[in-house]
Write a structure and sequence with these properties.
By secondary structure, the chain is α+β, with helices and mostly antiparallel strands. The protein folds into 2 domains: about 20-75 and about 155-275, D-amino Acid Aminotransferase, Chain A, domain 1 (2-Layer Sandwich), CATH 3.30.470; about 75-150. Helices cover about 20% and strands about 25% of the residues. It is built from 6 helices and 11 strands. It has a 7-stranded mixed sheet with strand order 1-11-10-6-7-8-9. A 4-stranded antiparallel sheet has the order 2-5-3-4, with helices on one face. A hairpin with a 5-residue loop joins strand 10 and strand 11. It starts with about 20 loop residues before the first helix and ends with a helix. About 30% of the residues are buried.
Amino acid sequence: MNPNYTNLYDFSDKPIDWNILPLYKKIEYTATRFQPNIVYFVDKLYAKQTASDWISNNGTLQNFNIPVGLVSIPNTIRILSDASDVSVFDLDSNIMIKSTHGLQSAYNIDVDGNWDVSRVLHRLQDFERPKYFPIQTQYNYITKRYFSEQKIEDRITELWGKAIVYSIYMIQGIPVAYSECFESRYNLYELIMSGNTYIDKIEIKPPTTRLPVPILPNNIMQNLINISLCLSYPFEFIRMDYFVDIYNQIWFNEYTLTPNCTQKIFTDEKEIEYGLLWN
């Protein structure tokens, strides 16, 4: 792979009211403007390699002096040759079977005792059905592939394959918000920062059903932010997603360019405030 991390968007025709659009409207516009090089961030295998390359750059994350061991990349166990390349040897409760082109967790298979080869093959054939994304155009650049990946033992659920996703929302290099997500339940917070130093977080809106997640230690929050400052640098907006295991080790999950499928994420007030940050 010879990645090119430039020319990720075509912003040649930004709307004339761009400066006053709320954040979700800017994400919606951006989602239709991605260029082919975006594949290095949305194809799940390429994205892991991209993050790995940056993490291993001279032993630091760019210029942030972050030790390589601070963030890990889940191991790819095997790349399947096609959607029929599954055997009993893939039915390992320590792995996930994933699609490179998936949206959300619907494209992950948590291989546990309830799965057999025929069921996995049936699910992969469902992944194979033609899909076109007229709004989230980044997915149209991905070649369908499948792979198995090690599971992360989550710090809270302690369930292999069912991990909480910890996310940092970045706007033009500024960490503005943080969320915790598990099985479609979200806790959403505004980040209180002093420069690039984490101070605190404030809940943005009470969730319909609160996710009972113990507070991450401040040093882990700071590490999530520092890693995001590095890995997000090509993007005007990005949500960086991670797992945290039982040893408080941070694991890269993925780059999310169009969270909530471009729909509103925050309160109306925060959508306007964050939209103004993206000029």
